[in-house]
């Protein structure tokens, strides 16, 4: 009974975070939710007694791919500052 409750709880976490990845507009929050989804999938592998696959899930996907995605998001995001809006006003006038 406890295994069923744990499975349902982690299935809900997986589905909710995967929907969040698709529906959230901010890339940084989507990347964090992708990490949550990948970690909860690793928990499902542990529940299936596939510990090696769970560790490879964490090492390869969470440790590698997610770090690469977060670096790409951090390096490509552009912040709008007050100096940018001032320069646009100068160009318009």
From TrEMBL:
PANTHER family linked to this entry: NADH-UBIQUINONE OXIDOREDUCTASE CHAIN 6
Residue runs in coiled coils: none
TM stretches of this protein: 30-51, 58-76
Metal-binding found in the keyword field: no
Name of one Pfam family that matches: Oxidored_q3
UniProt keyword annotations, A-Z: Membrane, Oxidoreductase, Transmembrane, Transmembrane helix
UniProt key word Transmembrane helix: yes
Enzyme class label: oxidoreductase
Name of this chain's protein: NADH dehydrogenase subunit J
Annotated GO MF terms: NADH dehydrogenase (ubiquinone) activity; oxidoreductase activity
InterPro entries tied to this protein: NADH_UbQ/plastoQ_OxRdtase_su6 (IPR001457), Nuo/plastoQ_OxRdtase_6_NuoJ (IPR042106)
EC number: 1.6.5.3
């Amino acid at each position: 009974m406890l295994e069923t409750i744990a499975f349902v709880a982690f299935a809900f976490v997986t589905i909710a975070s995967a929907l969040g990845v698709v529906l959230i507009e901010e890339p940084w929050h989507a990347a964090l939710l992708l990490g949550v989804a990948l970690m909860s999938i690793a928990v499902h592998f542990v529940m299936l007694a596939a510990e090696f696959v769970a560790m490879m899930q964490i090492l390869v996907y969470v440790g590698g791919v997610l770090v690469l995605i977060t670096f790409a998001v951090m390096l490509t995001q552009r912040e709008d500052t007050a100096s940018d809006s001032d320069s646009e006003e100068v160009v318009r006038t």
